[in-house]
Each structure stands twice: as C-alpha cells, then as structure tokens.
Design goal:
The protein is α+β, with helices and mostly antiparallel strands. It is 31% helix and 24% strand. Bound molecules: 4-amino-1,4-dioxobutan-2-aminium adenosine-5'-monophosphate and magnesium ion. The site of magnesium ion has 3 residues, from strand 15. GO terms for molecular function: asparagine-tRNA ligase activity; ATP binding; catalytic activity, acting on a protein; nucleic acid binding; transferase activity. It is found in: Cytoplasm.
Amino acid sequence: KTVIKDLFRNQDTYTDQKVILSGWVRTVRDSKTFGFIELNDGTFFKSVQIVFDDQLENFKEVAKLSLSASIRVEGQFVLTPQMKQPFEIKAEKIIIEGNSTPDYPLQKKKHSFEYLRTIAHLRPRTNTFLAVFRVRSLASFAIHQFFQDKGFVNVHTPIITGSDTEGAGEMFRVTSLDLDNLPKNDEGKVDVSKDFFNKETNLTVSGQLSAETFALAFRNVYTFGPTFRAENSNTARHAAEFWMIEPEVAFAELPDIMDLAEEMVKYVIGFVLENAPEEMAFFNSFIDKGLLERLTLVNEADFGRLTYTEAIEILKKSGESFEYPVEWGIDLQTEHERYLCEKVYNRPVFVTDYPKDIKAFYMRTNEDNKTVAATDLLVPGIGELIGGSQREEREEVLLSRIEEIGMNMEDYWWYLELRKYGETKHSGYGLGFERLIMYLTGMSNIRDVIPFPRTTGNAEY
Ligand code: 4AD
Ligand code: MG
C-alpha cells in the first residue's frame, strides 16, 4: 500500500505506476461525467487529487460522497507539471469504506482556530493541526534523542506528590475523600489521615526535586512528563496541564546548563527543519511569515546572555512605556521579556542572577546574598521558554532559606538528606514543551499546540 507522504517525496519513482491509497475525503467536486476528490491519508498534512470519471461502476455514489468519508482508491499516478498540483491519481476503482453525513463540521472553508478548539475531536483532520501535531511528535523524539545520545537517563518522576517544588501554591489537590461527606478532625478541619495516602497530595508542578535525587546517583538525568498548575492566568501561554522536560546535571554550575539548554534548543530546531521541511514551509507561509528566517538565524549565532540587573538597566533606559513599571526586584513580565529578546537582541537570550525573593527556595544564593544563580531563557514571540538554576547544595544555606520562607521542613527531609550524603554541585532547568512547539511552529496560542488543552474552565474531552 502506498502512503501520500511518500508520493509527495518520491514523485519520480511513482510516475505512471499503479498505486493503492486509503484515506478520508477532504473535498469532492463533480460534473456530469467526471469529478475530483482531495484525499488525505494522515501520513502527511497535504492531500492528493484523485480524478474519477463515469467509467467507475459506482460513479454516482462516489460523486455524492460526503466530506470525511473513508475510501480506498486504486489508480494510476500521473505527473501534472502544468497544473497547480504536481501530480494526480487517475482512479480505476474506488471502494467506499465508511460514508459520512452532510453535517460534517469541517466543510471546505477557512475555520478560525477559536472555532476549531470547540471541535478538538475533529481538528486534527485539518492541514494546520496535522502539521502541528506531527511537529510536536518529532520535537518530542528529538529531545529524547538529544539527551539519550549524551548518555542522560530518563527518569519517570511521580505525578502525584506530597511536595510543592515551586512553592507557589498553585497545585491541584488529589484526594480519594468523598467531598460531600468529608471526615473532620477535632479542630473541624479535614482529617487527611483518612485520605488515601494518609496525607495531603497534589498533582506535580515539576519533577525537579525527584530528578535531583536521580542526578546524584546517575549524574545526568532528564524527565519528560506532564505537569499541572492551577494558575488562574487566562493567557495564550499558560495551560493547567503541560509537559516539561527537566534535565538535572551533577557537578554542573549555572553556565554549564545554559550551554546545555542552548545546544538542546538548537538541536531540536535543526531536527524539525530536517525532518518536517514541508510542514515548516507551510507554517512559514500561512502562520508566521518570519518563522524560517528566525529559526535559521538562531542556529547561526550564540544566544545572548545578561544578568537580571543589566536587564533592568536596559529596560529602564529603553524609553518604552511598559504596562508594568520596571524597577530592581520585580518579576519580569512577558512584555519585558519580549522587549529584551525581540527589540534588544533579536534572538534568544539568557537572563541570569535574579533577586532571590522572586525565585524558588532551591536556587543557589550568590555571593551578594541578594541574587540567586538562576536563569530564564527568553525567546522572540514567546518570552520565557526555560527556567533553571544551580541548586543550593550547602546544607546550612538551604536550611536557613527554607526557614526564611516558612516552608514545612519535615516535608523535605529526603531532599535535605541529599545535602548531607555527599553534597555535590548540581544544576538543571525546565523547558515548557508547549512553548517550544509554539516557538517552532509560530502558533500563537498554547491551546493550539495541545491535542486537548486544559485551561481555566475548560476540561472538555
Ligand atoms: O520556570 P518554571 O516554573 O520552573 C520549574 O518548574 C523548575 N522546577 C524547572 C527546573 O529547574 N527543573 O517552569 C519551567 C518552564 C517555564 O519556563 C515555561 O516554559 C513552562 O515551564 N511553564 C508553563 N508552560 C505552560 N503553561 C504553564 N502554566 C507553565 N508554567 C511554566
Ligand atoms: Mg519560571
């Protein structure tokens, strides 16, 4: 059996050959004695043109096919250099496998992404989403390949956890208790000892703390799994369920993992450009005109690097009127991040050494005692793509930081033991996979790079 992707890629070898295709009807046009079908078989985001005529014994049924009917076509491959389509299939036989009904929502016209989100069970049948989700699959493969080639061990960290890695309190609670009939203790509070795990548990916001334990055994590890955040931010860049890649490297300091992150991003870009050239050209024509130029440039220059303090100076002197006022100590907002990478650098840029008060407890305190050895990678069109740091390996410093923040020390006993038993410098980062896909495809809303997005108020499917 032939697949459409192969027809497009190896047109010469198919010239005048007999082919057998199976797929779904995208469009049908017919006149009295002949007609055309655009057929997609899922192997490629493009469709092939099938020409049929009244020689077919079932000509009338074929001409009346509803969109998305599944059919099997036997016919001859012919090059059509004088036409818009490079080739077509002259059908000798068409078998109707499963017809469709005329109310099929994806009729031939341009549908908005907003509308397509309401039919997420059908939208993968469109060119754009066939391209997006193929690139998503390739990028996932590329990331595994990148780390596996370097000897990193992939560690599967738990989805249900008892700790809050980021300390931001944006977790989804997991419970086996009957919410209509909650067991209460003497103080009138929920009796968590009656819950499945005998304690409070949540969906993980990051696999980092567990990954650190493996890094201190395997040296180089990475996670690649789903993470969950109950952030109430209704933006085009936040999802409640997203996938994160978190490498963790023993004996590494901050600049080492910045090098790793830069190499990884460049590798993935190179991989999708090489393995999905047609999809990437499609995004460049229909989604984001500057995409290919931007991605090609990325692989030609080093990423920018500057400190948070330098970034604040640049933003203050920029003369821009930002919505959120700039002063040392603020958490950089997307508008600031995008100004830095788009207007100042015009390429991805690492910002390092953020104030410790706006960052997580595990980040290594710098000499100045005001900043931490943290980095965010900011990329044009998106803002923050990666967040990472060197980890605080000094037990006393970590202890006083946990105390300072007022975290519950007991929950972290195992994490603290890592500092006791052969403390080792180590560093890592987290890459938001969906943001990477947005960056690679030019898609501007995170809802359009996730098969079934989970955002505020939306858990359909
Ligand atoms: O910066 P974050 O919060 O870092 C961590 O979770 C660290 N534990 C990572 C580490 O050092 N191992 O998240 C990392 C990345 C962000 O840069 C962003 O790309 C993505 O995860 N991210 C989100 N993506 C989509 N929706 C959300 N709600 C996201 N929150 C973070
Ligand atoms: Mg971050």
